[in-house]
Specification:
Elements: H1 7-19, E1 24-29, H2 36-46, E2 51-57, H3 59-65, H4 74-82, E3 89-93, H5 99-105, E4 109-113, E5 129-133, H6 141-155
Parallel strand pairs: 1-2, 1-4, 2-3, 4-5
Length: 171
């Protein structure tokens, strides 16, 4: 069985797992460029239960939330995340938030990164436990992209400069 599932198939998996006493952990995000922060975060999330579900924002959702993104397509992002040993299942959602998906799946635990306060985490009102895991300063996809752009434009003349996420030209 593939680790990448449609939401309806994932609901069946969750129902069966909870029926035999397994603790289901849910997290979500863009996971555009996988980095050490993602790996550590997902490892910690998995330790909070038996099954880790990662819900990925679809490409259209990412582009509404983050200008100039995604860098990697949703199908490729799903395959990369599913290849991580701590991830049990991956699904893709189209909405800007996973609230409806969390309501549909009813996981036991909801997890986000430390840049979120537990009460701000979408869906925290639907699950018994919510955790905000430590965030590694200086390690985010946005910061990595900004460093790449800064390094590139320092060593290459701006023949065709790309706008930054604020819409300005890079320095």
């Amino acid at each position: 069985m593939s680790k990448i599932l449609e939401q309806s198939d994932l609901k069946e998996v969750v129902t069966q797992a909870k029926g035999i006493g397994k603790k289901v952990v849910f997290t979500n995000g863009c996971f555009d460029l996988i980095h050490i922060g993602h790996v550590r975060y997902l490892r910690e999330a998995k330790a909070l239960g038996d099954i880790l579900i990662v819900a990925l924002n679809a490409d259209d959702s990412v582009s509404r939330l983050k200008p100039w993104r995604p860098i990697i397509t949703e199908t490729q992002r799903a395959e990369v995340v599913a290849s991580l040993e701590m991830v049990d299942y991956v699904t893709i959602f189209q909405e800007d938030t996973p609230y409806d998906l969390i309501a549909f799946l009813r996981p036991d635990v909801l997890v986000k990164g430390g840049d979120w306060k537990p009460y701000e985490i979408v869906g925290s009102d639907l699950v018994p436990e919510t955790f905000s895991l430590p965030y590694i300063r200086g390690i985010s996809t946005t910061e990595i992209i900004e460093r790449i752009m800064q390094n590139f434009f320092q060593t290459h003349p701006p023949l065709n400069p790309l706008p930054s996420r604020e819409g300005n030209l890079p320095a």
